[in-house]
Structures are given as C-alpha cells and as structure tokens.
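ZP: hey, is the pyridoxal-5'-phosphate complex queued? I don't see it on the tracker
AM: it wasn't, my bad. submitting now with these inputs:
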Amino acid sequence: MKPRPFLLERYFAEHEFSAPYLLCCSDCESLSIKDLLQKEPEAHERFLSLRLGYTESLGSPELRQEIASLYRQSSPEHILVHAGAEEAIFNCMHATLEPGDTIIVHSPYYQSLGEVARSIGAEVIEWQADPGRSWTLDLDFLRDRLTSRMKMVVINVPHNPTGFLPGIEFITELSRLSDEHGFLIFSDEVYRGLEYDSAERLPALADINERAVSLGVMSKTYGLAGLRIGWIYTRNRSLFRELAAFKDYTTICNSAPSEFLATLALHHRDAIVARNMAIIRSNLVQLNAFFAAHTDLFQWHEPKAGPIAFPRYLGTSVAHFCRDLVEKAGVLLLPGTLYREDLDCFRIGFGRQNMADCLEKFEVFLHRSEK
Ligand SMILES: Cc1ncc(COP(=O)(O)O)c(C=O)c1O
C-alpha cells in the first residue's frame, strides 16, 4: 500500500518558503557552514580537502563515535547513521513490521511514525495523550491492549507537538512491559537535549532496554536540519543487522560533507545547545506574556522541553484561523487538524531568532481582527 500524503510536510511544502513569518518550525535556529568551520582551526582546510567518494554505509567512524558519546551504554557499533530521522523511521518500520502486526503509537504523532506502519499493512492503534492532564499517556491503555500480535510501541519524548516529557518512572515501566510482553520500543528522541530543566532529561530508551531503538537527529536540538543526518541507536544486534541491510535499498551511505560537519557540530555540541536553549528561554518569556494577554482566544500551557508547544484555540475552527493568519499577515502556524481531525490546537515554534518579529505580526493581525 502507498503511504497517504504526509499532511504536515505537504503544508510546509506549500508555505515554508513563501510565508515570511514562520511561527511553527520545530527546529532550532540554524548555523552556517562558516559558523561551524570556525569552531576549529584546521576545520576549514580539512573540509575543503574532503574527497567526495562513497562513504561507509553505517556512517563514518568519527561520527558514530561522537553520536555514541551522547548516550550511557553505547559504543559506535550500536549507531547506524541515516539521511535524517525520516529515513531511519521508514527503514526501521520496514525492517521490523509485517502485514497483520499491531503497533501502538503515541498520539498526536509526526505522521510517518504511524503512517509507514499502516502502509505496510500493520494495524495502528493510537495511544492518545490526555490534553486535560498536560498531555500525559496512561500506561493502563497500553496494558489493556497487549496481545501476541503487538510488535512495537512508538513513543516520542520530548513530544512533537506538545512538548510533553514524562518522568523516569514512565519509561522504566514501559521498558519492563516490553521485556514482559516482547514488543519493541521505538523511541523518537529527536528533541532530547532541549529539556528546560536538565535534571528532567530522560535516559535514552536504548540505554535502559537492550532491544529498544532510540532515534536522534541533527535537525532539532542542534538546528542543523540541512545536513540530513539522523541515527538509530540500538544494542539489539539482530535488528541492527536488518536495518543496515535495508539501508542498501534507500540511501546506501551518507553525504560526506554532511558527515564531516555533523561530527564537528557534535564535538562542539555544548556550545551549540547552550545557544539554542538561550533562544528558547528568551522566546518563552515573550510567549508567556503574549498568551497571558489573550486568554479569551487561546489556552496556553508551557511545555517542559523543546522548541514547540501546542496551545488550544478557543474559537470555532483552528484550520480557518491558521489559514486566515497566513493569508492576511504572512504568519505561519500549524493547525492541529494536520495531526488529527479532532484537535483544536495549533503548533507554535520558538526555536528561531526572529520569533519576536513573528509574534508582533501575529499581534497586529489579532488587533485588526477584533475591529
Ligand atoms: C518527532 C519527529 N520525528 C522525526 C522527524 C524527522 O526529522 P528529520 O526531518 O530531521 O528527518 C521530525 C521532524 O519534524 C519530528 O518532529
């Protein structure tokens, strides 16, 4: 079966390079190649003399070493580099699922996390986060649905679009259930590292569960989406082998310049993440003030991590509201209906340096609409 259109990505394809005020991006402010090369004295020369042949299919040893150092139990042999998180999701679903399998997906979800499985012929059960309880997930929902056909449970923490971050007890119990019932945990952790309180950072699922898969990427926390470098971390050897073999049919290997730059960026990750967190924190101050001034229109809940949140729109149609806003003011929000028809929320992004400009245009639009 063909996957259905990816609604969120189609929406971005329509607006991302034409709307002047992007207020729903999920990545942090980007860096230039020059910014990265300035981080080390020899980097510029090394980059220019890089040869552009095929690269090692699993990822360059230096890059895999840097990625492995993000985790507690990993070594480079547990890291498989992909073209973005998106390729890793596609390949992992194809390498593990068969028609007739069941998977449970944390909902609302970044569409590929459920749609690829559905296109393979798996039954997809949505594990709906509770908006009334800060978007928490109820483990009893999962316990009640565990059957022998349950192949995989997909979670996304910190969560797109709500910024939800569970406590350690949640993932510990999830891991225990996985051991007891045999399902695989696919943990999308592409926003890991952007917790507002670093004490709340969760261990990667693959660190606490030997069969689990943790997904990471350069796009979000590090603001380097254009590199198209993502990875799977797993200590599950048989799955690792299957994933490596599957990649021969998608990208074979990664872009050499991207691997070089990703290695450099990860080597200097503390400085990059500190800069991105400073942008997020300063933007959050403005967002809190903005939403405090518009409680008649929006219900705001500050998340715990990441550069996005999912406030509720209290008017009649969030889709119409967002369309009106981009057409009349050039400000792009993402209606929650692109995640799930029944959601009256919108995604707002605050990892970019121009957020104040976007918010100002948003404010002017609201002011005009009141008249
Ligand atoms: C939760 C989640 N997973 C995966 C991805 C895909 O990341 P990338 O575009 O870097 O491949 C995204 C991108 O928005 C995401 O939000």
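AM: back. Residues 7-32+270-370 form a domain with the Aspartate Aminotransferase, domain 1 fold (CATH 3.90.1150.10).
ZP: great, adding it to the tracker
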